[in-house]
Amino acid sequence: MFLTFHILATAFPLYVKDSLNGNQQQMGLVITIYVLGSVLIRPFSGQWVDRFGKKKMAVIGLVIFLIACICYFGSKGIFLFLVIRLIHGMSYAVASTATSTVASALVPDSRQGEGMGYFSMFMSIAMVVGPALGLFLWKDKNINVLLLAVCAIAALSLLFTMVMRMPQEKRDTAEPVLIAAPIKRKRGISWSDFIEPKALPISLVGFFLAFSYSSLSGFISSFTAEIHLSHVTGYFFVTFAIMIVLFRPMIGKVFDKYKEHYLYYPGILLFAIGMLLLSQAHSGTMVLASGVIMGIGYGALLPCFQTLALKLAPEHRRGSAAGTFFLLFDLGYGLGSYFMGLIASFTDYRMMYVVAGLITLLSVAAYYLLHHRPRAKLPIQNHKANIA
Questions:
Q1: Which of 324, 325, 365 has its CA nearest to residue 206?
Q2: DSSP state of 370
Q3: Closest CA to 104 of 315, 250, 254, 245
Q4: Among candidates 93, 89, 90, 77, which has minimal Cα distance to 26?
Q5: For all residues of the chain together, what is the average pLDDT?
Q6: pTM of the entire predicted model
Q7: Distance of CA 9 to the CA centre of its chain
Q8: CB-hemisphere CA count at 13 Å for 113?
Q9: What angle do CA 200, 203, 205 make, to 5 degrees?
Q10: Phi/psi class of residue 258: alpha, beta or left (left: φ > 0; alpha: ψ in -120 to 50)?
Q11: CB distance 247 to 106 below 8 Å
Q12: Predicted confidence (pLDDT) at residue 19 exceeds the cutoff of 60
């Protein structure tokens, strides 16, 4: 599913330009409309997953996801094309929220860090492989070849979900206190019906990571072309992915054995250092070195955030927690792409990466104030609760 997203995010702007005679604004709308559709549905997707079931909503989301891929074959005009992109983004929000919650349900609580680490590892691999595959499929400018490949991948994603066997709901055998939570009746509609409050702080920190990361996915090709190092762009993402894969098993075990702070602070520091190194790159070696450093940092941060968002929420609210995390992450990615492009247009790409690195460092304050310090006060409260 994530592979499909990144293939189209790379190839569709080129399709709009080359085949639909779109301008630069319409090329940008291909991504913006998709993210808008996702953001509009995210608050509801978590609630639907919690109410109707993880696997059921995953199947429904992926069915619509596949239908949207097929509908691209008939989209001859830019308006119809953008309408399908909006619907596609909505289905992506439902499917990604549901599959993330399914992954958490399949993993034992004692190995959540390791299990969700593998899940997010494949998200990251898709993030790296997808753009390269999208460019390869579009090299002959044959939209039918591109769409056939995307439909095949989307169909496989749906098939894997349909044959998956889900365990019994954990809340059936979990602590009795969790069973009582859904019975409470509320008057009217509250924002907490759509946003999981316990997942919100770490999701806000994830917003900053996505904001900074958008400068890589959206502008690294233009930056390397500007400094006459276009030939290393592909290798940059390869080294980025290799570091994620190499360190992911160790990172998952560290999360399960120690506190998340042991991953966050080194991870965010490495990501910021890599971003600042990239801003000063004058050779292919420096570009690749920044990819290595950022790959290790990003590989530690994404599963850390995602696992925490799910683990901090009650079992019956994990769908809403996943929706909350992806909502903030999508917002960070979408807004970051716009503002980073704005910074680059007024200054240059080097300054843009300096700003991205500084934003990464500033997020440490958000993490400490929103998550670290509040969590440090919990052990005494939890001990009292256990005694009671």
A1: 325
A2: I
A3: 315
A4: 77
A5: 82
A6: 0.73
A7: 14
A8: 20
A9: 115
A10: beta
A11: no
A12: yes
pLDDT tier for residue 145 given thresholds of 50, 70 and 90: very high
In one letter, which amino acid is 285? T
- Tell me the per-residue pLDDT of 281-331, one tens digit each, with 9 for 90 and over: 999 999 999 999 999 998 888 878 878 887 888 877 777 787 788 888 888
> Nearest CA to 61 among 82, 38, 79, 39?
38
The two three-digit tokens of residue 86, written as one number: 């909006």
Q: Are 247 and 296 in contact (CB under 8 A)?
A: yes
Q: Which of 166, 153, 40 is nearest to 102 (CA)?
A: 166
Distance of alpha carbon 220 from alpha carbon 228, whole angstroms: 12
* Token pair for 223: 């930056």
Element (H, E) at 49: helix 24-52
Chain segment 43-101, per-residue pLDDT in tens: 788 788 888 888 899 999 999 999 999 999 987 778 888 899 999 999 999 998 898 88
> Tokens 């291909």 sit at which residue?
30
3-state secondary structure of 324: helix
Cβ of 175: how many Cβ atoms within 10 Å?
9
Sequence-separated contacts (24+) of 141-145 with Cβ below 8 Å? 141/18, 141/19, 143/15, 143/19, 143/72, 144/73
pLDDT digits (tens, 9 = 90+) for 245-281: 888 777 777 777 777 888 889 999 999 999 999 999 9
**Element spanning 224, H or E:** helix 200-226
No. of helices (H) and no. of strands (E), the chain: 15, 0
Tokens of 178: 């969790």
- What type of residue sits at position 155? A
pLDDT band at 23 (very low <50, low <70, confident <90, very high): low
Amino acid type, 159: L
pLDDT score for 179: 39
Residue 220 CB-density burial (10 A; 0-12 exposed, 13-18 middle, 19+ buried): buried
Which stretches within 53-163 are classed as H helix? 54-71, 78-106, 112-137, 143-162
Q: Indicate the burial class of 377 (C-beta count within 10 angstroms; 0-12, 13-18, 19 or more).
A: exposed
Q: Are 324 and 46 in contact (CB under 8 A)?
A: yes
pLDDT tens per residue across span 191-216: 666 678 888 889 999 999 989 988 88
Tokens of 306: 């995602």
Measure Cα distances from 170 to 57, 108, 269 in Å.
18, 10, 36
pLDDT of residue 24: 55
